[in-house]
UniProtKB/TrEMBL annotation:
Domain of life from the UniProt record: Bacteria
Name recorded for this polypeptide: Nitrogen regulatory protein P-II
MF GO annotations: ATP binding; enzyme regulator activity
Modified residues (O-UMP-tyrosine): 51
SUPFAM superfamilies: GlnB-like
Subunit structure: Homotrimer.
Gene: glnB_3
Organism, as annotated: Pelotomaculum schinkii
PROSITE patterns registered for this protein in UniProt: PII_GLNB_DOM, PII_GLNB_UMP
Keyword Transcription: yes
Amino acid sequence: MTKIECILRPGKLENVKDALNEYGIHGMTVTQVIGCGLQKGRTEVYRGAEYSINLLPKIKLEMVIPDKNVSEVIRIITDTARTGEIGDGKIFTYKVDNAIRIRTGETGDEAI
């Protein structure tokens, strides 16, 4: 099993979620986060004063999937979330030793 963690533009969440649902991935965790990378924030003017906003709103999407689906899920996320501009986000993958469904006690791929 592999955990996929994505940092995305907030406006891309629905498109990515719909594409993953269509592929058959239904379990995911979505968190609103703030952060910065190459985009380095932006400058805004408020009441005549200029402010640097270096932490931008992003979406963190997490899911654990069977290893056989990893490359296809990464392709779906990349194709759906890409705008071609700085700030599109990042995808991280982690190996997962086990998963346990608390309600039934199922383990491994059956638990996800």
